Prior knowledge:
Strands 1-2 form a two-stranded antiparallel sheet. The chain has helices at about 15-30, 45-75, 100-125, 135-140, 140-145, 160-175, and strands at about 80-85, 90-95. The chain has one domain (about 15-150). The two termini are about 45 Å apart. The radius of gyration is 28 Å and the shape is flat. The longest helix has about 35 residues, at about 45-75. By secondary structure, it is mostly helical. The chain has six helices and two strands; from the N terminus they run ααββαααα.
Amino acid sequence: MRIYATYATSVVSQSMKVRVTNLKNEKMKFYNNEAQRKFKSKTMPEQEELNLFRDILDERRINLEKEILKLQNQIEHPVAEQIGLLTGTVETKARQRSLEEIKLQRDLEELKENLEKVKSAREALKTVRDVPFVWDIAFVEVFTGEDGGFDIVLGNPPYVRAGKHCSAKRRARENYN
């Protein structure tokens, strides 16, 4: 199963961003066959990439679990404190759910859904063939440097005018219907 997961850069921690940069640098050293390279075989950068994506998903799972616990505490302990004017005592009473609590409940459900997706994605990362495709990691040798990227993109232009196809389709419908 191939996963194509993308995460906003704000979701990935600074330490993981550093690891991605280090991976790209080490892959570049490998492709340039530098003597001081970390990776000595083709399988080494692939395995490092797999471990990196697993760690990113594990970190995301932990952060989601923390957010869920925080929201659950906010929702489960909705109490109001009142100080009696005459007695000066503090009274704690359960209060009705506010719109804010309803919003928190919706946010909690969304976080739980995201957590399940992250767990599913992590479970699917079994081998190096399951690693998500990220252009600048997969083609580090192309995207690194001053002129990073592709110089040209080739495609098939339409050699036949679209109008000719329309009339052919109309004739086919008339003749074969």
